[in-house]
């Protein structure tokens, strides 16, 4: 009986190792990753660190569960009892989410943590190791984690500093996030100058920037884009859904100029028109500079947000008006995933980025990727990790690899595609498509 059992388990193990899932999954661990989107930052001040604050996204699930805000006070040392007392209940309610799974992936792969979730006694030892890695040894830790993920490069969206061009190009590629340039136009119109944007002044090497009329403001925009292009930026990024709707109306130069020339404060509708005009102008510059445009669509990170801002269909007028621009739209457009796929299928100038979707909902990522492969040629599908801390880039990548291997192996197992094709598609999603799209 014992022999039989041994034989049976050996058989099952061999079958599992030979499964198409494992073949695809193992293949993905052999290739270099071209990561289309990250926000990786240096962790900052360790005094506020309490474990949960350096996990990308997951704190929003605990907040959604009912967690009150928390300010760490490590003056008398880190107190795991206090942390668990505050977080424990809502942590437990959030243990089934994909954000949590990303967190557990990170802990499993980087910290050999082999439990499915945290308990009170796990907090202190993990805190100590994370403190050492992220604050006392960051450069070495960063390099190790980056290498472990086999990242080739990461496109870095510095949402905390839109005008910084000084990045480490051995790890990152520069992107020009244009949110500030768009939103600043109303203030510039009211003041007829830009007065309060230190990072912009530093970039333009100027202490105050005149913007007496629309043309002067447009020349500021052009200068910023030119500088970024010269510094090696690979694309333009729009994350304006966090501040406003993605519907950018086509406003004539004359209308924009007369709004700009008004004296005093502008109303909401006037401000929107100016912003719309500026984003159209930026797209026109993107054509001249041969820069693709990434646009955040769908869900918004955090809590209590205007989720309807990011509906992908709000962008149709731009896609139709600028067929020469290479757009990449983000996040599966979640929850408008069907709209997202339809846009990718229909438009010759639009690529689709799965970025962040596996973390928002792993199940939705699986079903959306199936739908994408049904409807969209696979040279148009990319992936980015979209996290703030280097450790999480591993948890995020792991989640995405599982999603892609699951979808492709299901299709192989049903006889919908060959294993060779599945392997080709896996490599395309995590490496080749981004290289072709961004041309590096
Ligand atoms: Zn992002």
What report would you give on this structure?
There is one protein chain. This protein is α/β, with parallel strands linked by helices and 440 residues long. It has a domain at 144-438: TIM Barrel (Alpha-Beta Barrel). The chain has 18 helices and 10 strands. The termini are far apart. The model has no long low-confidence stretch (mean pLDDT 94). Residues 37, 39, 157, 386 line the site of zinc ion.
In DSSP terms (H or I, runs of 4 or more residues), the helix count works out at 18
Low-confidence stretches: none
Question: In which order are the strands of the major sheet placed?
Answer: 1-2-3-6-7-8-9-10
The CATH homologous superfamily name of the domain at 144-438 equals Metal-dependent hydrolases
Report helical residue fraction: 40-55%
Top-tier CATH class of the domain at 144-438: Alpha Beta
**Averaged pLDDT:** 94
**Content of β-strand:** 5-15%
Count of DSSP E strands? Answer: 10
* Sheet having the most strands: 8 strands, parallel
Order of helices and strands: HHEHHHHHEEHEHEHEHHEHEHEHHEHH
The 3D shape can be described as: globular
CATH topology of the domain at 144-438: TIM Barrel
Ligand species: zinc ion
CATH architecture of the domain at 144-438: Alpha-Beta Barrel
Structural class: alpha/beta
Rg, nearest Å: 24 Å
Cα distance spanning the termini? 59 Å
């Amino acid at each position: 009986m014992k022999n039989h059992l041994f034989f049976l388990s050996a058989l099952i193990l061999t079958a599992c190792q030979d499964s198409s899932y494992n073949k695809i999954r193992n293949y993905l661990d052999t290739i270099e990753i071209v990561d289309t989107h990250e926000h990786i930052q240096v962790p900052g001040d360790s005094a506020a660190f309490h474990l949960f604050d350096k996990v990308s996204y997951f704190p929003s699930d605990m907040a959604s569960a009912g967690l009150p805000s928390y300010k760490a006070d490590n003056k008398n040392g880190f107190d795991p009892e206090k942390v668990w007392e505050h977080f424990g209940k809502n942590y437990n309610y959030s243990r089934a989410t994909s954000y949590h799974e990303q967190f557990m992936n990170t802990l499993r792969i980087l910290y050999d943590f082999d439990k499915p979730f945290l308990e009170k006694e796990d907090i202190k030892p993990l805190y100590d190791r994370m403190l050492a890695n992220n604050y006392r040894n960051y450069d070495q830790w960063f390099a190790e984690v980056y290498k472990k993920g086999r990242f080739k490069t990461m496109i870095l969206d510095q949402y905390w500093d839109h005008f910084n061009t000084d990045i480490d190009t051995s790890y990152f590629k520069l992107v020009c996030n244009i949110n500030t340039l768009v939103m600043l136009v109303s203030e510039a119109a009211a003041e007829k100058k830009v007065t309060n944007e230190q990072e912009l002044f530093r970039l333009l090497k100027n202490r105050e920037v005149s913007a007496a009329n629309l043309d002067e403001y447009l020349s500021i925009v052009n200068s910023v884009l030119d500088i970024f292009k010269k510094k090696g930026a690979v694309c333009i990024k729009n994350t304006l859904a966090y501040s406003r709707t993605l519907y950018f109306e086509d406003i004539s130069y004359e209308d924009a100029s007369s709004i700009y020339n008004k004296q005093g404060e502008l109303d909401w509708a006037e401000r929107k028109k100016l912003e719309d005009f500026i984003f159209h102008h930026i797209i026109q510059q993107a054509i001249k500079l041969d820069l693709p445009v990434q646009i955040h669509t769908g869900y918004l990170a955090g809590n209590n947000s205007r989720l309807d801002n990011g509906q992908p269909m709000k962008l149709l007028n731009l896609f139709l008006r600028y067929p020469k621009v290479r757009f990449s739209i983000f996040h599966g457009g979640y929850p408008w995933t069907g709209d997202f796929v339809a846009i990718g299928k229909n438009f010759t100038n639009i690529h689709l980025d799965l970025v962040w979707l596996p973390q928002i909902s792993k199940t939705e990522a699986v079903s959306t990727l199936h739908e994408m492969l049904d409807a969209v040629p696979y040279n148009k599908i990319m992936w980015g990790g979209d996290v703030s801390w280097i450790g999480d880039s591993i948890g995020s990548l792991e989640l995405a690899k599982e999603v892609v291997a699951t979808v492709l192996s299901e299709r192989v197992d049903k006889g919908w595609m060959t294993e060779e094709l599945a392997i080709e598609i896996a490599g395309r999603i995590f490496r080749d498509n981004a290289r072709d799209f961004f041309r590096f």
